[in-house]
């Protein structure tokens, strides 16, 4: 027999907004990204009429006040890991917040089942941790022109295709542990040749053997005797 998890009794509870408080988004170290839930129309189409409740009509003023209170634009360091984004409305709300992170410099998005953030731009991000997600390509990462430290451990990146897009960034350290591309022949040489400014790969500094030897071209003089 299976025993219930400690949180099992809370699985049907709804998330609630806490009204009349002065805490802002950039003051939270590990906020949970949630919204009011699916629309009534979506719940009806799902056949979940029992979940329908009379919801408060939010005015434009209240929406603006909530946006100011979230204050994502002023976040410099943010941890949005382990969000358990199990529904489409949660994913969309999550991406809505990411689009507002115009000043974030350090961002953790660990274990969120993310697959594609290519439409997101993080103009000031210097440190990004997206370990334990479902990325399969470097092309699926957000635009991070100022990135210095990037961690992609435990994703599903098959090849190094697209890694050269980071050549023109100040990227210094990269972690690709436990990705299929790690088993590619001459893996370290290929990464460092694609990223000449990289100083550390998978926690190991650049070693002499990581330098790709220059290609040697042989020229032969041929004499044709008739």
UniProtKB/TrEMBL annotation:
Keyword terms of this UniProt record: Leucine-rich repeat, Repeat
Signal peptide feature range: none
Descriptive protein name: TILB protein
Organism: Nycticryphes semicollaris
Lineage top rank: taxon: Eukaryota
SUPFAM superfamilies, per the entry: L domain-like (SSF52058)
PANTHER family the UniProt entry points to: GENE 29133-RELATED, LEUCINE RICH REPEAT PROTEIN
Gene label: Lrcc6
InterPro entries: LRR_dom_sf
Classification of source organism: Eukaryota, Metazoa, Chordata, Craniata, Vertebrata
């Amino acid at each position: 027999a299976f025993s219930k998890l400690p949180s099992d009794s809370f699985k049907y509870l709804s998330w609630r907004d806490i009204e009349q408080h002065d805490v802002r988004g950039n003051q939270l170290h590990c906020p949970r990204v949630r919204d009011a839930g699916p629309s009534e129309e979506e719940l009806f189409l799902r056949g979940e009429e029992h979940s329908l409740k009379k919801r408060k009509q939010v005015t434009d003023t209240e929406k603006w006040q909530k946006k100011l209170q979230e204050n994502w634009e002023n976040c410099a360091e943010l941890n949005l890991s382990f969000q358990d984004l199990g529904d489409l409305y949660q994913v969309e709300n999550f991406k809505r917040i990411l689009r507002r992170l115009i000043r974030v410099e350090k961002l953790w998005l660990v274990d969120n089942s993310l697959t594609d953030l290519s439409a997101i731009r993080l103009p000031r991000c210097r440190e990004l941790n997206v370990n334990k997600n479902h990325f399969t390509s470097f092309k699926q990462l957000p635009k991070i022109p100022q990135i210095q430290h990037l961690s992609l451990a435990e994703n599903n990146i098959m090849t190094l295709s697209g890694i050269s897009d980071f050549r023109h960034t100040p990227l210094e350290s990269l972690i690709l542990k436990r990705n299929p591309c790690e088993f590619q022949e001459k893996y370290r040489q290929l990464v460092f040749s694609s990223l000449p400014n990289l100083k550390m790969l998978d926690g190991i500094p650049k070693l002499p053997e990581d330098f790709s030897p220059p290609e040697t071209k042989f020229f032969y003089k041929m004499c044709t005797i008739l």
